């Protein structure tokens, strides 16, 4: 009986800790969005369910480096880290200082490299051979990367990049 009670307490503690992380994530995101809506362009952080759905079918399991633009409160970052191999690296770009602080406090994974940089500085990634995963409404960031391919969600269909996809980016 005591063993069952101990398991119940452990489950409750774990659930409570997860709920507190979610509240902190939402609070951080809400304050940042209120102060910089133009760059954040969202009123709530992505959920872990949305993050998993967005990355479903994206072929990242065998890559050595993934670049995430706009890590925000880290929902997609967390799913990426769970999907990457132990020797892989996740370069997460974020321009908002509140998000950078939050991510530094929330993640201790040595594969994560946080970069406080704007998308305009990403032209150098045009020659990068790895996967670049970007969730953005910033057409300039997309154009700076000069992508060759695009993966269309939610189905994960892959297509060659063309300028027609810029309209979709602006709607994101």
Could you walk me through the main structural features you see in this protein, from its secondary elements to its overall organization?
By secondary structure, this protein is an alpha/beta fold. It contains seven helices and six strands; from the N terminus they run H-H-H-E-H-E-H-E-E-H-E-E-H. The strands form two sheets. A four-stranded parallel β-sheet has the order 3-2-1-4, with helices on one face. Strands 5-6 form a two-stranded antiparallel sheet. Helix 3 packs across helix 4. It is globular. The termini are far apart.
| Biggest sheet architecture | 4 strands, parallel
Structural class: alpha/beta
Question: What is the helix content?
Answer: 40-55%
Q: Shape from CA axes?
A: globular
- CATH architectural arrangement: 3-Layer(aba) Sandwich
Q: Tell me the total number of β-strands.
A: 6
Beta-strand portion reads 15-25%
What is the alpha-carbon Rg in Å?
18 Å
List keywords for this structure.
Rossmann fold; 172 residues; 46% helix
Give the gist of this structure.
With 172 residues, the chain is α/β, with parallel strands linked by helices.
